[in-house]
Amino acid sequence: MLQGHQTWVYESKPVIIGTAAIGGPFESQGGLAADFDMFHDDLWLGENSFEKAEKKLLEEACETAIKKAGLKKEDVQFFLSGDLINQIIASSFAARTLGIPYLGLYGACSSSMEGLALASLIVDSKFAVNALAATSSHNAAAEKQYRYPTEYGAQKPPTAQWTVTGAGAAVVSQQGEGPKVTSATIGRVVDMGLSDPFNMGAAMAPAAVDTIEAHFRDLNIDASQYDLIATGDLGRIGHRIAGDLLKKHGIDIPEEKFTDCGILMYRSDQPVFAGASGCACAATATYGHFINRMKRGELKKILIVATGALLSPMSYQQKESIPCIAHAVSIEM
Amino acid sequence: MSSKKKKKLTPQQQEYQKFAHAREPKRPVLANCVRAFLVGGIICTLGQGIQWVFITYFNFNEKTAGAPTVAVLIFISALLTSLGVYDHIAQWGGAGTAVPVTGFANTITSAALEHKTEGYVLGVGGNMFKIAGPVIVYGVFSAFVVSIISVIIKALGGM
């Protein structure tokens, strides 16, 4: 049901019955390592290209989530997925393997919550019993896609971020045990005219703030409703900007409640500059770390605000600024 | 940012950019310059040493030793790139690794490695000069312009 301007309230409260988070070698050293289902100690995953490696990560995340939900592939009616490679081939190729009816998404790093919001919508409207939402990113594949060759010696500024190698998946169902998806706010594209692709946090922060504001306004609630509000991949710099911007807009989120997956993903001694980024950042942090904490009873109600920068290498070269988006999904135990 | 570019931004965008800019860490320009000086200097000293070896032990003179010296530096750079070390040195050394011939070798080697998955013709062949290409194009073009100017000055009886 639509509430307010841009928020969906799921009346049947679809249940997340199975989740999975798969990571790469760098993530296994990170701050959330304990909550991943599986790690690979090789960026190639035994494949002969980074793109195939990412596809494999995504397949494993989907298969693990379905298995943990106690289902078979045939029990899942729809598969929604997105990634960062051109023409979202990791998602489409994984869908070929899974054989589940598929809808491809592209929301850059906001794809995780875009997928979860839509999967919940499909389940809530009874158009499916079980739907699978997944997303992946691969550090080297993303570098190749958006920046320079991985071994190219370009000096990165302190505002740069490190793309997570990993994949996250969640099975949303009409019934079962687990955290429930209660509402979602679909973000609008916000462009503050920033154009530096090595400073995505600052570009995306206003989109996150816009979506959080819309979520509170539409549902007529405030931050006290949540135990935790986590943005997707703003990193240290973007998180700070978002925090200050919220205060400026008169929205008070206590510091201990407001966090960012891009900060949590890696330890402070890992050389990741401003923090983590990539589709898999919010996906693995949510489907691994946060869901586990909810199941342990540490968190009751959380809001995940996945942020995405909708630029392309071509739009950057054509001197366009970076349009950004954020989608928020509220999950309740 | 240039004032021309700023004009296109709305007041709201300008205000946010100022707001965000105040919260961003600056590039450590001075430290980067010192590191670039050190790393660039070490690479050039290494080159000098290699040249000395060629002149002393291999019967080259100062002029002819240039080519084999550059070849050795390019080989070392390509080797370090393929072992995955060069980009780490470059993150620390910055322009110190980019400006010498080793940086040029790194652009070609890294692009060739990266695109090997798309095949040797369209992948390696087509992408090898992706980053190095502009350097060659504008290097050759500026050399051409300078030569023309030099020819004209000489023809007019100058120098």
TrEMBL record, chain A:
Q: What organism does the record attribute this protein to?
A: Clostridium thermosuccinogenes
Membrane spanning stretches: none
Cross-referenced Gene3D superfamilies, in alphabetical order? Stage V sporulation protein AD
Instruction: Report the InterPro entries cross-referenced here.
Output: SpoVAD (IPR010894), SpoVAD_sf (IPR038369), Thiolase-like (IPR016039)
The record's Pfam families line, in alphabetical order, gives: SpoVAD (PF07451)
Entry superkingdom: Bacteria
GO MF, one term, reads: acyltransferase activity
- The protein here is known as Stage V sporulation protein AD
From TrEMBL, chain B:
Coiled-coil residue windows: none
Record's keyword annotation contains Membrane:
yes
**Keywords assigned by UniProt, alphabetized:** Membrane, Transmembrane, Transmembrane helix
Residue intervals passing through the bilayer: 36-60, 66-86, 135-156
The UniProt entry, under InterPro entries, shows: Spore_V_AC (IPR014203), SpoVA (IPR005562)
Organism superkingdom: Bacteria
PANTHER family xref list: STAGE V SPORULATION PROTEIN AC (PTHR38450:SF1), STAGE V SPORULATION PROTEIN AC-RELATED (PTHR38450)
Checking NCBIfam families in the record gives:
spore_V_AC (TIGR02838)
Name of this chain's protein: Stage V sporulation protein AC
